[in-house]
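#onboarding

Welcome to the new folks! Below is a worked example of what a typical request in this channel looks like: someone posts a single protein sequence, and someone else replies with the predicted structure as tokens. Don't worry about understanding the tokens yet, we'll cover that in week two.

Example request:
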Amino acid sequence: MKLVSERHSDAIVMRVQAARIDAAGAIPFKEAVRAGIDDAAARVVLDLSSVQFLDSSGLGAIVTVMKILGPERRLELACLSPSVAKVFRLTRMDSIITIHDTLPADIGGARHAG
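Example response:
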């Protein structure tokens, strides 16, 4: 799974370049995110604007990423499609993970990381 990362002074924004995070893509997704957050800032923002479908395996992968970050780093999601946002609402994960309609405006200057 391809992710494009931008490092900012206080966060990493990871743009998911896939239409689906499902059973077939959950493990590659977790591996790609894990590789990009080894030296992550305090915030990791996943831009899910390209993701149109998320199943329970994809949701589990995102929860695993949150656990990998631990309590000292924060996972946030941004730009969810209506169908993906519905999964978070129905599972009430929207009360656990911060979800933004757009990329947060308070993220500092970008440095492209690939």
